[in-house]
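Each field is set out underneath.
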Amino acid sequence: MKSQGFTLIELVVVITLLGILSATAAPKFLDVQSDARVAVLDGLKGAIQGADGIVQGKAIINGLDHEDHEMLGPEHGINPTLSIVYGHIHMVKSNVDVAKPFNTDLRSVDLTHLIPDFDTISGVAFYHGDEKTDIEVANSKCFLFTANGPESGELLFDVETSGC
């Protein structure tokens, strides 16, 4: 007599093996959202650096790269008018909100933050999610902080991703 199909033991073994494989693979797939948040913050850092390079070029052409807190506007080839520090984008929330240079769902908030090799410094933090206070953003441990360096205005970055 020929038997067709699976025996109960074969079925249990296959289901058990599939369960073990899925339990092993699930954490890899479930961690994708965290990786995506980190990638968005890293991508935004690159976008800010690119935008700053364009603004710095316009400031140099117009001789505004040696001035602290200048305005760069349509008469200089930049629209809308931006506040700059030694030719770099002035990193304050009001300046970022006016420029809207980033097509992203990230929000921004003015934040005072400690950057390695510098004292506590004021700048802008970009983060995911609903509207938050500066303290909530700092406690979330998932943000991109950017500020102007105290001497030359160059952009300083700190990407905090331990809470993403």
